[in-house]
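Input.
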Amino acid sequence: MYVAVKGGERAIENAHAWLAEERRGDPSVPELSLAQIREQMALAVNRVMAEGSLYDPDLAALAIKQARGDLIEAIFLIRAYRTTLPRLGASVPVETANMRCDRRISATFKDAPGGQVLGPTFDYTHRLLDFKLAAEGEVPAAAKAAAPQSGPVPHITDFLNRDGLIQAEERHDATPPDLTREPLEFPANRALRLQSLTRGDEGFVLGMAYSTQRGYARNHAFVGELRIGRVPVEMEIPELGFSIEIGEVELTECETVNQFAGSKTEPAQFTRGYGLVFGQTERKAISMALVDRALRWRELGEDNLGAPAQDEEFVLSHADNIQATGFLEHIKLPHYVDFQSELELVRRLRAEAEAAAQEAAE
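Output.
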């Protein structure tokens, strides 16, 4: 056993060294800097921050570099690092109405109060490879864009609420449970569900959202508003007796508007789905809002249609890509004893079957 363990240690050390060599790639090619990853692969950085539950672009860039571009591995690295950090306090809830919007659109109102801001988006680009980028030259600068909006930008759904046409959201002053400190338990309230979805795997949440649009839940949604921008973060200082701004974060917020014919407990009105994610992550925010609305069937008095996206335990238990990856990839680790026992069982069953067949033939 001692020899096997030492041999295993040497093999693992060699695997680490080989991994580092593969990560670096051809030494004649300039090495990627963290600044390059942070600035030029911002959407990947945003996903790692969102699903890793840690807002730090530099650390997310480091994780992407270390993981050779494997975003789930990078998310794993960020989550592992986050567990080592002390909890110094809690910020006050951010006011997204105070967001300095780089992008703000609505699919429900053409002349949205406050204006529509297309912002940086792939929505209007041709899906054709741009070979000018392969030339590694400077791309001509675009016309100078307008500065982000300053001052409060009202939420579009607030205008629907003036006429009582959209369900009013209840305000909960109690501190919600912290999914990074406490395990997920069922039944989960909406605050806990939203936490789980915001750090869930983008592909999984997208798949669940798509299923609701294809009829596997009652979910006919419009994007009431999608906004991307920076929001100040404030923290209350007990010695001062008031809150002060300690920084700002980039967020993507999506509110969907869903038709609702009414139920035994609620009148006909529009209802909401909600998504809020770190960085420019609009596909995830929209998907999150659709799944959030599907999971609200019980509180709205709707019938459960048996759709996967309506099953709280199914959705939340399988959304976490780190748990899924760990359970999936553990099967490639040594299972020699387990397999040998099953091998012996199969051999015994085959021998018994052959003996029985031979006995019947005689």
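Confidence is low (pLDDT under 50) at residues 1-5.
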